[in-house]
Specification:
Blueprint (H helix, E strand, L loop, with lengths): L3 E4 L5 H12 L3 E6 L2 H11 L5 E5 L5 H9 L10 E4 L15 H29 L2 E6 L12 H21 L4 E8 L6 H5 L4 H7 L8 H12 L9 E4 L16
Parallel strand pairs: 1-2, 1-4, 2-3, 4-5, 5-6, 6-7
Helix pairs in contact: 1-8, 3-4, 4-5
The structure holds NADPH dihydro-nicotinamide-adenine-dinucleotide phosphate and 2-hydroxyethylsulfonic acid (8X3).
GO molecular function, one term: 3-hydroxypropionate dehydrogenase (NADP+) activity
Family: Belongs to the short-chain dehydrogenases/reductases (SDR) family.
Keywords: Oxidoreductase
């Protein structure tokens, strides 16, 4: 029986690239996001490789999360791999100037959303005594940078939850793992800068940023190790980046 993966944030960037790679490797997919048309478009493309089910919900709203997951048909109920990937930064501002709406979006989406989805899926894994939870953190969850305050806090929380989940779920044979990327060229900066595409593009200019496919490749590697192997925590930078703030850019 092929594995079934549940991917949040599958409509773009890292989640979408992971969906494509998983599909090509015969992993069945539950794809989640808020943008219905994107979900449908990806389902149409990937159905030639694997079985795909889509769920449209906003991770910030617990009723939406639980209703969506409860609506899964029987043949998609047993989730082998949960990729907690949905998330974004909203704004890049000092703590004194930051917007409360942005803070809410980051804490509610990146932290509470991850918790709601996990809470809905973990019982099935416990019952079956098997499962893999892979949390997408960030180098922002390892190192705080100026103006990153609340986004960094949300990713520090993901880092802590990743460790907490591993401790609590150890007795149930469930693998828990996190990948913490540096700069990846996705819609992330468009969202962070609220559609200021020029500013967003500049984030990835002057060096070769990680591509979403690079992270998908690592995710696939991590989840396909033999079952007794659990890669706990993995940081990945583009070669041009050495820390959250040290980036070797060619400014020509
Ligand atoms: P994208 O903006 O390209 O993708 C974000 C995905 O998350 C989209 O599919 C979006 O779907 C979904 N999403 C966002 N908010 C919600 C929400 N409230 N409810 C449901 N789905 C939501 O960015 P990335 O692919 O880069 O981001 C994926 C993860 O990687 C995030 O957790 C991010 O923090 C992390 N990350 C990104 C890095 C980068 O440099 N790009 C580096 C380190 C970590 P939709 O809009 O359809 O809901
Ligand atoms: C995304 C990477 O450096 O913008 O998590 O925080 S960074």
């Amino acid at each position: 029986m092929p594995l079934t993966a549940f991917i949040t944030g599958a409509t773009s960037g890292i989640g979408k690239a992971t969906a494509y790679l998983f599909a090509q490797n015969n992993i069945r997919l539950v794809l989640c996001g808020r943008r219905t048309e994107k979900l449908q478009e990806i389902k149409n493309e990937l159905s030639q490789f694997t079985e795909v089910h889509t769920l449209q919900f906003d991770v910030r709203f617990k009723e939406e999360v639980f209703n969506a997951i409860e609506s899964l048909p029987d043949n998609f109920n047993d989730i082998d791999i949960l990729i907690n990937n949905a998330g974004n930064a909203h704004g890049l501002a000092t703590i004194q100037d930051g917007s409360i709406d942005d803070w809410d979006a980051m804490i509610d989406g990146n932290v509470k959303g991850l918790l709601y989805v996990s809470k809905a899926i973990i019982p099935g894994m416990i019952q079956r005594n098997t499962g893999f939870i892979l949390n997408i953190g960030s180098i922002a969850g390892k190192e705080v940078y100026a103006n990153g305050n609340v986004y960094c806090a949300s990713k520090f929380a993901v880092n802590a939850l990743n460790k907490g989940m591993r401790l609590d779920l150890n007795q149930y044979n469930i693998r828990v793992s996190a990948i913490h990327p540096g700069l990846v060229e996705t819609e992330f900066s468009d969202v962070r800068f609220k559609g200021d595409t020029d500013r967003a593009k500049k984030v990835y200019q002057g060096y070769k940023a990680l591509q979403p496919e690079d992270i998908a490749d690592i995710i696939h590697f991590v989840v396909t190790r033999p079952y007794h192997v659990n890669i706990e925590d993995l940081i990945v930078y583009p070669t041009a980046q050495a820390s959250a703030t040290l980036l070797n850019k060619n400014e020509n």
